[in-house]
Amino acid sequence: MQYEILAKPASSVVKVQLNAGDHLTCEVGAMVAMSTRMTVETTTQKKGSSGGGIMKGLKRLFAGESLFINHFTAREDGQYIILGPTMMGDVIHHRLDNATLIVQGGSWLASDPDITIDASWQGLGKAFFSGEGAFWVKCSGTGDMFMNSFGAIYAVEVDGDYIVDTGHIVAFEDTLNFKVQKAGASWMSSILGGEGLVCRFEGKGIVYCQSHNPSSFGSALGPSLKPRQS
Amino acid sequence: MEVITRDRPAFANVQVKMQPGDRIVAEADAMASMSTSIVMKTRWNGGFFGALLRRIFGGETLFVNEFQATAESELVITQPFPGDIECLDLNGTSMFLQPGAYLASEPGVKMGVSWAGFASWIGGEGLFRLKVSGTGKVWFGAYGGIFVKEIDGPFVVDTGHLVAYEPTVGMKVGMAGGIFSSFFSKEGLVSRVTGPGRIYLQSRSIDGLAQWTNRHLWR
Hints:
- The complex is a heterodimer.
- In chain A, 38% of the residues are buried.
- In chain A, 13% of the residues lie in helices and 49% in strands.
- Chain A is built from 4 helices and 15 strands.
- Chain B has helices spanning 48-57, 118-122, 179-184, 206-216; strands at 2-6, 13-18, 23-27, 31-35, 38-44, 63-69, 73-77, 85-97, 102-105, 109-115, 128-141, 146-151, 154-158, 162-165, 170-175, 189-194, 197-202.
- In chain B, strands 3, 5, 6, 8, 9, 10, 11, 12, 14 and 17 form a 10-stranded antiparallel beta sheet that branches. A 4-stranded antiparallel beta sheet of chain B has the order 1-2-7-4, with no helix packed on it. In chain B, strands 13-16-15 form a 3-stranded antiparallel beta sheet.
- Chain B starts with a strand and ends with a helix.
- Chain A binds chain B through residues 9-10, 88-90, 151-152, 154, 156, 160-165, 168, 183-185, 188-190, 192-195, 198, 200, 209, 211-213, 216-217, 219-221, 224-226, 228-229, and chain B through 6-7, 10-13, 15, 28-29, 31-36, 38-42, 61-65, 74, 76, 78-82, 100, 206-207, 209-210, 213-214, 217-218.
- Strand 12 (153-165) of chain A pairs antiparallel with strand 4 (31-35) of chain B, so a sheet runs across the interface.
């Protein structure tokens, strides 16, 4: 897939080149601009598959993504589409090679239609304690995919174990396992130190982290915002 | 210890590569990710009373975290809002930081609260200010880009844009122009700082963002 990431890292968008018959599956609302010889199809499921789509759509809804996904198809050669997330932040490319990437709800932007997008149940306990959703977006197969973040994205190659604060996870390879644990040596220290709970990854694989935490930004700005007038 | 400030200026964050025994102190909730070979300890932000003063008047957290590496490790530190991060190298010198600007420091740096005066308060910068002194590096952040300026005489800064300044810099509140233009130009009150000394300015202010957002909320 030929692509270019523009306006990095503050307001990144990705420009993807498509030739006749090429498809791209995208998050609803991600299209910023595109050339005219394109067909758009909105479904609740993977392109071309039949049956069971609505359930997958509903599961995706729980994962913080939309019920629907858009499929863009180029009718002629030399077409392109520009995709961007809502918030300011970065966009990165990841290549799946018969592998699985677990993406935090809301960070999936687009992928090759050969990649299966499904919700992955991470367990209520983890959802409750990690501050992330109970469902994550599970992308598996072979092809290119794009993710977005709040802040810049950095990749950490874990070999052994590594700690990521809740709110900073973008995605991780399924060769890694994570559990939620306290940040410091004691519970007292973890809570008073403001770090609370963190995610500890174990195994060998890549974890993508975002430099900024949406909840921390919300807490910094929130007190200055006026309440809703009813 | 090797420190890199990356993704500047929009989403600056600090990557710290640590050797066994290296220590760094950071504001509560500043850690984004780290190696498991780092031990995190939470302590009062400079003693109980000092911490209390800094919490109430300095706009800082009651507790800070000290990170100590037990092996070769990596630590990533960030701030809540998008913006730039600057590093100061203190060598027995000191610097005043505005509430909320402090991010991290080396163990040789002391933190205290000092009286900033009514001029600072009216200027929207707080009645007290955080004073960092001692020996070592200090990292502080801002919402927006950070500009450093050497002043040698009077200089005017809009409220909410001053991030840090040297103790030699004096501060007074003034009007941007006459009474009429100060009111209608929306510049209102400004800080009149006087050198000699270095000042750090931020290109945006979080209060400005809040005001702008409020105007577009719940229409």
